[in-house]
Amino acid sequence: MVSVFGIVNVTRDSFSDGGRFLEPAAAIAHAEALLAAGADVIDLGAESTHPDAESVPAEVEIARLRPVVDALVARGVQVSVDTHKPEVMVAMAARGVAWLNDVAGFRSDASVAAAAGSTARLVVMHARNETPRATRAAAGGDVVAAAAAFFEQRIAALTAAGVARERIVLDPGMGFFLGPDAATSVEMLAGWPSLRRLGLPLLVSVSRKSFLGQLSRQRSSQLSGQPGATGVGDRAAATLAAELFLLQQGVDWIRTHDVAALKDAEAVWTVLQGAAGRRDGPPHRR
């Protein structure tokens, strides 16, 4: 069974649910619902990273996160904090979070030091740009090879600072973190298993991302000559299709907004795989 990060955005402007969980009570209630649906880890983010997101000072991030982290950690929940700011990492590690999830991949010396000074597990995310924002700028070249080279550099930096390899999980990045063209994300999805050679667990997040909307619109246009629905709310089926593909490919972790849908789909997929395996067992001998 795949392990699941359930996303809770404690933000004003996240691309899919900005403002819905900004208040601590709303964020905690949503986290509890995701846990009840089967999430293993709650991934809290207090600053959005889409291309048009507002910048949030570290002290504001900490203030948004503190009451939610404290409430969940007190209940024994595994909490991940999604941040690129070293001071936020240090503050939240001191409050007992189990994971630090850096969209910038622990590029800075300060973030490496913050990671090394904690006991948290680390999600090292790859992005084509060198800023903690997704980008609309196109990038050429082999995206999977670029991710592998990036991971090798960051693993070397983290382990040199004293971080044990078993604390590290790799996230190849998706959507605008790879560029504006859906084909780049498709290339990564098709090629990410080659990152297995690095010998570390892999986490992938495709949930509600814009490239899925692009692919859905292409299909609608081919069928009717008219563009299909474009809103984030229209990406549920496309998200689940991509997540089932990841399940089939054996990804270790999936980070998602819709935990219940993923776990229901996994349950059905597992039963069908088992039934197919029994039917396709050893050939009958006469």
Describe the protein.
With 286 residues, the chain is α/β, with parallel strands linked by helices. It has a single domain (3-279), classed as Dihydropteroate synthase-like (TIM Barrel, Alpha-Beta Barrel). The chain has nine helices and eight strands. Strands 6-5-4-3-2-1-8-7 form an eight-stranded parallel β-sheet, with helices on one face. Helix 6 crosses helix 7.
Q: Characteristics of this structure?
A:
286 residues, alpha/beta, TIM Barrel, eight-stranded parallel beta sheet
| Rg computed from alpha carbons, rounded to a whole number of angstroms | 19 Å
The whole-number mean of residue pLDDT values reads: 87
Q: Return the string of H and E elements.
A: EHEHEHEHEHEHEHHEH
CATH class bucket: Alpha Beta
E-strand count: 8
What share of the residues does DSSP label as strand, in percent?
5-15%
Summarize the biggest pleated sheet. Answer: 8 strands, parallel
CATH architectural arrangement: Alpha-Beta Barrel
Query: What order do the strands of the largest sheet run in, or round the barrel if closed?
Result: 6-5-4-3-2-1-8-7
CATH topology: TIM Barrel
Corresponding CATH superfamily = Dihydropteroate synthase-like
- Proportion of helical residues: 40-55%
Instruction: Tally the structural domains.
Output: 1
Number of helices: 9
Termini separation (Å)?
Answer: 37 Å
Shape type: globular
Global structural class:
alpha/beta
What's the topology here?
Elements: E1 3-9, H1 24-37, E2 41-45, H2 58-74, E3 79-82, H3 86-94, E4 99-102, H4 109-116, E5 121-125, H5 143-160, E6 168-171, H6 182-191, E7 203-204, H7 210-224, H8 236-249, E8 253-256, H9 259-279
Parallel strand pairs: 1-2, 1-8, 2-3, 3-4, 4-5, 5-6, 7-8
Helix pairs in contact: 1-2, 2-3, 3-4, 6-7, 8-9
